Amino acid sequence: MLVVVAVRQACEEGAERALAALGAPITGRRQVGPDRALLFATPPLADPVVADLRAHGWRAAARPEGGGHLSAWQRHTAPVDIDGLFRVCFPWSEFDRGDGPPAIEVDPGRSFGTGAHPSTRLLLVELARRARAGDRVLDVGCGSGVLALAAAHLGANVVATDIDGAALAATGANAAWNELSVRVSEGLPGGQFDVIVANIGAEELIALAPALVPRLASGGWAGLSGVSAGQVSRVAAAYGGGGEQRSDGEWAALVMTPAPHA
């Protein structure tokens, strides 16, 4: 296994020193953007090196050297295109960022959400089609922050919240890496939002409905995902009924535009 480290050019020498100190000198390099490069090293054991690098804040992963395992890796790390407006990928994805739509790079850490899962992709597509510059967006259960990052990339003012501190840390770090502005919040913030997105599962969506519906501004919309087709009607009822269903395989999402509340 190789070790691949995603770096900004200004940090490249530091990454080389960190790899050398771990007995993993650089064996290859690939430029993937104006200010992005991938460094490759071949240590005796890749996993401990990756764990040490990640513990010190580097974006690193273990990568197969060749054969069928490498082909599977490349499929797994390929960018996900969202309506031709932007792509979502890992920092260590091996493709030229300058060729095609802008790339949002997401290191999931211990959190869920990289853009490839159908429940996430359904909401990314809705954001691409509906979100407008200046929208106030709330991402509930932000995980890795992929939905929040997409909204910020589209020009929205974004707040991301999660009950897991690791998710908030991952979202903040991913926002900084992509040079996007996202405010993280440990609890549900006050105020109203033009857009609320939540990819958290049916039971959680239903439980949060009394708190989320009053936070949706008049004329706003909510994208609710992480549900199956059989759960759609229960989730819709909790948010006032109606809504438009989106489906991707076994997964479904709801786009709700509740009636204005008093």
Word description of this protein:
- The chain folds into 2 domains: about 1-75, Alpha-Beta Plaits, CATH 3.30.70; about 120-255, Rossmann fold (3-Layer(aba) Sandwich), CATH 3.40.50.
- A hairpin with a 3-residue loop joins strand 5 and strand 6.
- The mean pLDDT is about 95.
- It has 8 helices and 14 strands.
- Helix 4 runs parallel beside helix 5 (about 145-155) and helix 7 (about 200-210) packs parallel to helix 8 (about 230-240).
- The protein has about 260 residues and is of the alpha/beta class.
- The strands form 3 sheets. A 7-stranded mixed sheet has the order 10-9-8-11-12-14-13, with helices on both faces. Strands 2-3-1-4 form a 4-stranded antiparallel sheet.
In summary, what is this structure?
This protein has 262 residues and is of the alpha/beta class.
Number of strands: 14
Kindly, what is the distance between the CA atoms of the first and last residues, rounded to a whole number of angstroms?
59 Å
Oligomer classification: single chain
Q: Briefly note the CATH topology name of the largest domain.
A: Rossmann fold
Number of continuous helical runs: 8
Characterize the overall form: elongated
Features:
alpha/beta; about 260 residues; 7-stranded mixed beta sheet; about 30% helix; single chain; Alpha-Beta Plaits; 4-stranded antiparallel beta sheet; Rossmann fold
